[in-house]
Amino acid sequence: MSAAEPQIEHGWVQRELALELPGLALASACVTPAAPARATADGRAQRLAVLADRLRGAQVVALRTRPVVAAQRSFFRQVGLDPDVQRTPIEEAALGRMLQGGFVSRTPLDDALLIALLETAVGVWALDDARVHGALGLAMGGEGAGARLVVADATGPVAAAFGAVVVDRRAGPHTRRLRLFAIQVPGVPAIAVEEALWTCAQALVEAGADR
Amino acid sequence: MVVLDDRVPASARLAHTDASGGQRAARAQLRGQIAGLERQLARAVVDGWPRVALPAAAGAAVRPGPRLLNLGELERVRDELADRVAGADMALRRRAELQAGNRDLLERMLLEPGRHRFVRVTRADVGEPGCGAWHVRPRLGLVGMLMGWWHVKLSSGCPLAT
Q1: CA distance, residue A86 to nearest chain B CA (Å)
Q2: Does B43 touch chain A (CB under 8 A)?
Q3: What is the pTM assigned to this prediction?
Q4: Residue pair B66/A161 in contact by the 8 Å Cβ criterion
Q5: Beta partners for A184?
Q6: Nearest CA-CA partner of A148 in A22, A14, A11
Q7: Residue A154: phi, psi to the nearest 5?
Q8: Spatial separation of the C-alpha atoms in residues A30 and A177, rounded to whole Å
Q9: B152: three-class secondary structure by DSSP
């Protein structure tokens, strides 16, 4: 196993969720990103430009019929979200590409997450591993009607499912080790989720490869 | 996948096993129906693009986050989606009928241009991509009009950008 092929860890799922939404899972992987080399910024921008070229109007509309996206859209509806309003990660990125005319290269981590998303249609999020306690999993956060699906560690929620990461768990400039995670919704094969994590890890390694 | 026990006492769970099991099965069935309807809607959107504007969701709003829906909520989602699929099917059917009518008209124009003077049918009207149009026009301008020499001209395509 190379540095770009991280060990995939399968997260826990709260019993209530597992019974109600069989097939829902979470996978995570730890990655130690190398400091980015200046020379690779162009490479990342170039790769994003190539990926942007793959997404034109007709392809963006047809995204919803691709198996992974179709499964995500169905899942969104099943958990009370309208995917035409709160879009799936890949559709959100595609809409941004249509509005901006391309993808803007940002930090190595942002770019790696975006590349993984565009290559696999599976969203990947990153946490500062030092601020995560124990294994990650999926749980219901909150009580009663206000309970929401969250990604949690041993101490509590670390991110909203398909949403923002809790501020004090975010990866920042001083993060030494990242904990990447992706949510596998029913109908999406595990290999797609694992590929998303591998792609993200690979992109992070490449970002520092030319140092 | 590791499933964590949610620490509800076993006795409390057992008392509701039958009722909750039945309801869970009903919710699973509704989720299956929602998934099927979502696939139908997605196909309709792709089939209709870019000519047919399909009806948007009524009252769709940003929700605070994903959650487990109860039976009633899942039924509402299923019914709203079914309405949208029906609306989309109707819009596509109407469009298909309109295009079939326009194709008939185009055939008649080509057979008898003199009976369809100055009628214009665009490629979009018959469901074809591009900007061309079939237009019944007189040969040789005014002379053709006076002599009854009509023919169908196909325009060369999209206008150049200015």
Answers
A1: 6
A2: yes
A3: 0.83
A4: yes
A5: A25
A6: A14
A7: -65, -20
A8: 7
A9: strand
Residue A75 identity (one-letter amino acid): F
Sign of the CA dihedral A145, A149, A154, A156? negative
Contact A11, A25 (CB under 8 A): yes
H-type alpha helices, chain B: 10-15, 17-48, 71-111, 142-147
**CA–CA gap between residue A9 and residue A160 (Å, rounded):** 19
B60 — contact with chain A (CB < 8 Å)? yes
Most A CBs within 10 A among B4, B13, B49, B81, hence the mutation to make, goes to B4
Could you tell me the CA-to-CA distances from B103 to B63, B106, B122, B124 in Å, in that order?
45, 5, 10, 11
A56 to chain B, closest Cα gap in Å: 13
A109: helix, strand or coil? helix
In chain A, which residues have their Cβ closer than 8 Å to the Cβ of B49? 58, 61
A44: nearest Cα among A101, A116, A97: A116
Instruction: Give the pLDDT confidence of A128-160 residue by residue, as tens digits.
Output: 999 999 999 999 998 877 899 999 999 999 999
ipTM computed for the complex: 0.88
